[in-house]
Structures are given as structure tokens and as C-alpha cells.
Amino acid sequence: MAELLIKNALVLTFDENALTGGMIADGAVAIEGNRIADIGDSAELAAKYPGVKTIDAAGRIVMPGFIVTHTHMPYVLGHNMPVDFSQLHSFWDMLQKMGWEWLEDITTQEGVYAATRYAATKLLKSGTTTVCEFVEGPNALPGILGATAKAIEETGIRAQVGFEVTERIPGAHILEKTSVAYADRGFEENIRFFEQYPSGNGGRITGRLGLHTAFTNSRETMKKAREIADRYHVGIQTHIAEIPRVFVVEKHGMSAPQILEETGVLGPDVVAAHCIDLTDEDVAILARNRVNVAHTPMTNSFGGNGVARIPYMVEQGMNITLGHDCFFTLDISEYLRYAFLLHKAHNANAGLFPIFQVLDWALGNAARALGMDGEIGSLKVGKKADIIILNPDSPSPIAPCSALSYFDMTFQGRHVETVIVDGEIVIQDGHSTKVNEDEVKKACQEEAKILWRKTGVQI
After folding, report:
1. C-beta neighbour count of 438 within 10 angstroms
2. pLDDT per position as a tens digit, 413-441
3. Within this chain, do residues 286 and 408 fall inside the same structural domain, yes or no?
4. In terms of domains, do 53 and 74 share one?
5. Beta bridge partners of 333
6. Residue 455 lies in a domain
7. Mean pLDDT of 329-344
8. Beta pairing class for 66-71 and 292-295
9. In the predicted model, what is the mean pLDDT of the chain?
């Protein structure tokens, strides 16, 4: 028997995708436990389920929660950090100094916990219900994933989680020295997590092995990553071609897709972030291995890394999803809109991409990338009840004929009113039901101050 009924809404199912998904003008969704029990006309479902708890969503949009396939939630500790940009002359400087020395290498478990609670709450409040979290912080081992999981448990978001496996030595320049021992520590952290949150556990948290890059790892480490992922029945998340292709070729004698294919890493269970500097051959390798791309246009722009060849990848039949590194705000509307606009401008082609295609990147495509398309990504009877309710602030009517255009023209995260994850209301009237938001923000700010002081910032 249903326990919650959301009625009188414009219901967008996105099943099987944004373009062909159902739109019910006066629709309702019934929830039983953590599953969707029924979808249909409001009057019919109200009569079918009398006396159950009801949310009157008149004037609202009801739809599946968004899915982000690449996040680094502790990176919010670096938001607005005063940075000496005179030290940053290239992407290598930004990565080595801003990314590693000034953030990851001085991250603590306390910082990870505080930042993840803050980021997860903000993500939920703007409509993201699932993330694929790639945790980095080599000096916070062992136990850093425990801090991550604690924050995720408390906030109510759904997540696949893994720690970066890398041979990078904190404090040493990546071009001068690496160590397999650091990769082994990363494997150990992941394995502990997989044993605590085994694949198929039915909960909100599962594992996904983090393999940092082909550039920061040896062939042996890459092979081991595939062996461990297969042993624990988890997918792999990695960064591919964020740095110029030539650096990987100089190290391995071949490109990142080539060496990752040779070592057996690639497959349909791989989520690859960035994928910028790729040749036609590189794209062909990723396509034939059915690798999923986590497109991160805002981060790529910030690093001056270029624009990923997403139109070409789509032509090759690749599964494109939407990711970000938790730079900038955590409002999913900004990432959707930037992805919607960037390729039009870059290619001087207004047809790239229609909004329904971009929405799929953060819904059905993302669910498939995470191996969860039978569970999330659309509203369908039997799927997990991961649902958001939007109260559009729009100058024009929001109806079935205009609903998709709303997401490119008008949608903002502040329009999200209610968020349900796994059948539980975790955001109500725009506020968390799980944590004290003021306390979460204060704790994150205090950890940011601690981290900033380590870089010499007087605060």
C-alpha cells in the first residue's frame, strides 16, 4: 500500500528519455517504502490511495532527481581561497599547486567530513540526488572514505564512492618521482570501503574504484585496478585526457585510451571524466569499449584545457553524462545551462545541443553510466523513489509544451522545493530535514580556515 502521494503536478517521467518521456499535466506519483508504486492521473490515484499522506504539488513540476557522474566534494574547502595567481602559469601549475599542494595534500578527515556534508546538502537542495564521488587526499589515509560515508549517510544523498589510486607522492613533483607504495595504500582504502559497502547492498552508498589517471600510474597499477574492480564487482572512475595528450605519450609511448585499453582497464563499467585532448583513434578506443564520459565543461574552461569533442563522441554512439569537480556553485542548473550553451558557441552551431539531450546527460545517461538505469534516472513504477519537486519561478506558463524549454531558459536550483531520496523526504520547503544547515556551513567554514592557514593565508 502506498504511503505517500504527490498529486496535482506536472509530472515529467523522462522514461526512457527526455524527448519521449511521459508528461502528465495533472499527474500524481505514489510511493511505497523506497520505491515508486504508481504514476498516473491525480484524480485516479487519489481515489486509489485514500487516506495516505499527501503532498499537494499544484503548480509544481515532479521529476526524477539529477545525477552527477563526477564530483570531488571536499574541493569546496578551496572555494574563494585567496590564491597567488602569479605562481600559476600553466595547467601544470594549477594542478600541482592549486589542486594538490594547496588542497588535496593538506586535506584532513575532519575537513573531508565537514566539506562533504556541506556539498551534499547543497547538491540536494538544487536537485541532485545521486553523485559519483572521487575522493582525493593522500595524507588523510587510512579512513578518509569512512569520513566521506559518514557525511553521505547523514545528509541523505545517494552516492557511488571511491578513493583515488595514484603513484603520486605528496610534496614531490609528479614529473620527477612516483611510488607504487602510494597506489597500494589507495587500493587498501578502496577495498576496506567495498567490504563495508558491498556491491548490491541495497542502500544509498556503494563503491566505485578510483583510478586517478594513466599518467600518474604504471601499467602494473592499472592492471591491478581492473583486477580489484572485477573482484569486488564495482565499476571504475578515472580521469582521461584532462592533461595534454603528449605527456602520457612521452611516459607510456601511447595515449591514455591506448594504455588503458592495453592494461584491461576500459569497459562499459568505466566512467571517464574530462576526455578533452583525444584524437579520432582515441575516441574510437573509448567507443568500442563503451566507456561512459563524464563531461565537465565548467572545470575544463577554468583550467584552460579546451573543449571536449562531445559532438563527435555523440556521433560515435558514446554515452555522455554530466560531471563537475565541485568548483563554482553546486547548483545543477548552472552545469546544465553551460553544457547546453558551450558547444553552440565553440562550434558556431546553434543546433548543438538541444536541451532534451543535455537533460539526458544528467538523468538516463548518467544512470546507465553508473549501472543504475534499472533503479534511478526516470520515474517508473518499481524504480527507487528519488524524486524532486520544483516550484518554477517563470515569466511564462510551464506546461507540457514548454516544460523542457524551462530547463534551458529559466530553471535555477532555488526552484527546488522538495527532494525525496530512497523514499525519504530529505529536503522540504527548500531546507534539509536531515542536518542543521547553519551548523553544517559553520563547520565547513572552520575547516576551510584551517586548510587556508596551511597555505599561508592569514584568516
Report:
1. 8
2. 999 999 999 999 999 999 999 999 999 99
3. no
4. no
5. none
6. no
7. 97
8. unpaired
9. 96
pLDDT > 70 fraction of the chain, expressed in percent and rounded: 100
Dump pLDDT digits (tens) for 155-178. 999 999 999 999 999 988 888 889
- Count H helices and E strands in the chain, helices first: 16, 17
Task: Identify whether residues 124 and 31 lie together within a single domain.
Answer: no
Same domain, 244 and 326: yes
Cell of 127: 536537485
Strands 270-274 and 292-295: parallel
Q: Are 116 and 145 in contact (CB under 8 A)?
A: no
Domain of 365?
A: 66-369
Residue 270, in any domain of the structure? yes
In a domain, 445, yes or no: no
| Residue 260 included in any domain | yes
Instruction: Give the CATH number, domain containing residue 22.
Output: 2.30.40.10
Residues 279 and 395 in one domain: no
Closest CA to 36 of 280, 344, 386, 361: 386
Are 351 and 395 found together in one domain?
no
Is residue 279 within 8 A of residue 310, CB to CB? The reply is no
Q: Parallel, antiparallel, or unpaired for β 416-421 and 424-428? A: antiparallel
Which residue from 235, 285, 230, 280 is spatially nearest to 260, judged by alpha carbons? Answer: 285
- In 3D space, the residue among 201, 182, 34, 214 whose CA is nearest the CA of residue 105 turns out to be 182
Q: Are residues 320 and 412 in the same domain?
A: no
Burial of 201 by CB count in 10 Å (0-12 exposed, 13-18 middle, 19+ buried)?
A: exposed
Element containing residue 389 per DSSP (H, E) = strand 387-390
CATH of the domain at 297: 3.20.20.140
Q: Among 305, 340, 304, which residue's Cα sits nearest to residue 322?
A: 340
Weakest mean pLDDT among 3-7, 90-94, 188-192, 303-307: 90-94
**Residue 97 in this model has a pLDDT that exceeds 90:** no
Give the list of residues 6+ apart from residue 61 with CB closer than 8 angstroms, or none.
9, 10, 11, 12, 389, 390, 392, 398, 403, 406
Across-strand partners of 134? 162
Split at pLDDT 50, 70, 90, the class of 331 is very high
And the C-alpha cell for 4? 505517500
Contact 37, 290 (CB under 8 A): no
Instruction: Say if residue 89 is in the same domain as residue 133.
Output: yes
Instruction: Give the Cα separation of 256 and 248 in Å (integer).
Output: 6
How many domains does the chain divide into? 2
